[in-house]
Amino acid sequence: MDVAPAEGQIARGLIGAIGNTPLIRLARASAATGCEILGKAEFMNPGGSVKDRAGLAIIQAAIADGTLKPGGTIVEGTAGNTGIGITLVANALGFRSVIVMPETQSREKIEFLRMIGADLRLVPAKPYKDPGNYVHVSRRLAEENGWVWANQFDNLANREGHRTTTGAEIWAQTGGRIDAFTCACGTGGTLAGVAMALKARNPAVRIVLADPMGSALYSWHKFGTLEIEGSSITEGIGQSRVPGNLIGAPIDDALRVTDEEALEQVFDLTIHEGLCVGGSAGINVAAAIKVARELGPGHTVVTILCDGGARYQSKLFNPAFLREKNLPVPPWMA
């Protein structure tokens, strides 16, 4: 006999499947700190990352304001994950997507974008001040062709999407029992949106910006300067400028995380907890541990598990690549 599904268990296509990801208790990080450290499992979104939310929010806002019309084209410059989110949402809603990406990003993301039908334009990696930077190339393509430019870094629809979904979900899932939230920033949309949502409900929630080496956001928050120190193999996070999504965000503190610290968490989560995540999630978990130790035992700290490790198999889980960068190799692959 067929049984009718319970109400609310069937998602309305791809759009209905984005968001409402679980919070996962990270057992080893929690035990090491005496705190509850929880990771929002954004790798469980249909496109495999937190950037599905940004892609959906940006496209919905463009439809609502009339700039993206039926059959239209949306173009974006991206390290990969936002491009994947935009392409899948565009596919589902009948739009065309053009994705501009630095050619240095992981092979897995490049191949996935091609696989799902993106019009992919790879460009040399250039700093933001260079006209050849992928963000500027995407903007010019939009202007020259009359396409909609997603502009994820400065488009406030990005952080608004996280305010109304990610932040609200975290508050509900913790029952309001949350002492701190931390994550790294690429566009700043996740940190800013979640911060706005949590602070509106409890101003005492501590918001901490986690920054990889090679990024200026740590010095921006701490000292009001854009100083860059070192470098990082992480993709999609860190900035040499302040994205519009971060302007006015209620951030209490910032901290730095090295690649070595991030990889320790990536490998530890994989082999001990069965959670295979990417480098930005490693940055986030390492930051959550630091925040928890600052707060002391008995607190709840939430962070973002941005995407899965399979997206970086050729880098994070490639012993030759890691040795070339003088970084630790997973013990089981050594």
Properties at a glance:
globular; disordered N terminus; alpha/beta; six-stranded mixed β-sheet; 334 residues; four-stranded parallel β-sheet; single chain; 40% helix; 12 helices; 15% strand
Give a structural overview.
The protein is α/β, with parallel strands linked by helices. 40% of the residues lie in helices and 15% in strands. It is built from 12 helices and 10 strands. The chain has helices spanning 13-17, 27-33, 51-64, 81-93, 107-115, 134-145, 157-173, 189-201, 217-223, 259-273, 279-295, 319-324; strands at 23-25, 36-41, 73-77, 96-102, 119-123, 148-149, 180-184, 206-212, 253-257, 300-305. The strands form 2 sheets. The chain has a 6-stranded mixed beta sheet, sandwiched between helices. A 4-stranded parallel beta sheet has the order 5-4-3-6, sandwiched between helices. Helix 8 (189-201) links the parallel strand 7 (180-184) and strand 8. Helix 10 (259-273) packs across helix 11. The longest helix is centred in the middle third of the chain and has 17 residues, at 157-173. It is globular. The N and C termini lie far apart (53 Å).
- Averaging pLDDT over every residue, what do you get? 95
Order of secondary-structure elements: HEHEHEHEHEHEHEHEHEHHEH
C-alpha geometry: globular
Helix content: 40-55%
- DSSP helix count? 12
**Widest sheet: strand order?**
1-2-10-7-8-9
Distance between the termini: 53 Å
Strand residue content: 15-25%
Number of strands: 10
Radius of gyration (CA) equals 19 Å
Low-confidence segments: 1-5
Biggest sheet overview: 6 strands, mixed
Structural class: alpha/beta
